Amino acid sequence: MPRVALITGGTRGIGAEISRGMKADGYDVVAGFHLNVQRAERFHEETGIDIQQFDVSDYDACERAVHKLEESHGPVDILINNAGITHDVFLHRMPQEAWHEVIETNLTSCFNMCRVVIGKMRDRGFGRIVNVSSVNGQTGQIGQTNYAAAKAGILGFTKALALENASKGITVNAICPGYVDTEMVRAIPERVQEVIKGNIPVGRFGDPKEICHVVRFLVADDACFVTGSTVSVNGGQYMA
Ligand code: CAA
Fold first, then answer.
1. Is the CB of 187 under 6 A from ligand 1?
2. Region 179-187 average pLDDT
3. Ligand 1, closest atom to CA 191?
4. How far apart, in Å, are the Cα atoms of 24 and each of 2, 17, 28, 217?
5. 45, 127, 157, 238: which sits with the fewest CB atoms below 10 Å from its CB?
6. How far is the centre of ligand 1, averaged over its atoms, from the C-alpha of 89 (Å)?
7. Average predicted confidence (pLDDT) for the chain
8. Whether residue 103 has its Cβ less than 6 Å from ligand 1
9. Distances from the Cα of 25 to the Cα of 4, 139, 176, 212, angstroms
10. For the whole prediction, is pTM greater than 0.85?
11. pLDDT of residue 13
């Protein structure tokens, strides 16, 4: 039986590439999505990958979604916490909602999803969790006090959860993508994009495939000695 992989935010951007790459590797992939039904359905038609709609910031919705998935696919072996949003604005203008939405969607979601799947992973003695953080969680970024706080929080969360489960066959790792050519990055004002590109030694934005490549490594059965790591994939923009 192929291992079952759930990728949140798995129908667009980096997540869609991870879903495709993992399907190609033979995993039984389910891609989560939230609001963009049209795009998710198109993704399903194009790839044949099962999709499931739920809000990662809502604990009960996560629990319901995982139970539904377990009925059709079996328990989750691999969880990729990829869903994330930005609401970029200087702190002195940031509405409270922009703080809470970003923290809940990007960080609390990792608690929600891991809390729902971890018990069964522990019972079965196997699990792979990859939390998608960001270079901006390592460096900070103008306009992103909310996002940087959430992405930095993911790094501590990952290490603590890795320690708790190291003896149970479960690895928990974080990846920190740099600026990758997705809708999220294309939404940055063009002149700011040029400033950012100038700070990337490789001289370009990343390709989603280059992030997927690292995830495929981390979820493999024989990556069992890699846990609690923070893996940077950023074209040299930040060297931890
Ligand atoms: N890097 C370097 N300089 C930046 C910057 C960045 N990321 N963002 C803003 N600046 C600079 C601008 O160039 C500008 O400088 P000058 O006055 O010298 O021209 C100054 O900050 C103010 O910026 P704006 O004039 O654009 O001010 P604003 O109030 O209209 O907008 C902002 C501020 C919302 C922060 C907007 O600049 C913006 O969206 N910046 C991009 C922030 C960013 O990098 N977000 C990452 C999104 S992608 C992502 O998050 C994925 C990931 O994990 C990497």
1. no
2. 95
3. 13
4. 12, 11, 10, 13
5. 45
6. 8
7. 97
8. no
9. 12, 33, 22, 11
10. yes
11. 96
Output helix, strand, coil percentages for the chain, rounded to the nearest 5.
50, 15, 30
Helix extents (H) in 48-108: 59-73, 96-103
pLDDT of residue 240: 84
Residue 94 Cβ < 6 Å to ligand 1: no
Tokens 């929080």 belong to which residue?
A: 153
Separation of 142 CA from ligand 1 center, angstroms?
6
Answer yes or no: 147 catalytic.
Answer: yes
Q: Is 136 in the pocket of ligand 1 (CB under 6 A)?
A: yes
Distance CA 53, CA 229 (A): 30
Tokens describing residue 185: 């990055």
Distance (Å) from CA 202 to ligand 1 centroid: 20
Q: Is the confidence at residue 234, as pLDDT, over 90?
A: yes
Does the pLDDT of residue 102 top 90, yes or no?
yes
Per-residue pLDDT tens for 13-55?
Answer: 999 999 999 999 999 999 999 999 999 999 999 999 999 999 9
pLDDT exceeds cutoff 90 at 182 = yes
Helix (H) or strand (E) holding 78: strand 78-81
Among the options 59, 147, 179, 238, which is catalytic?
A: 147
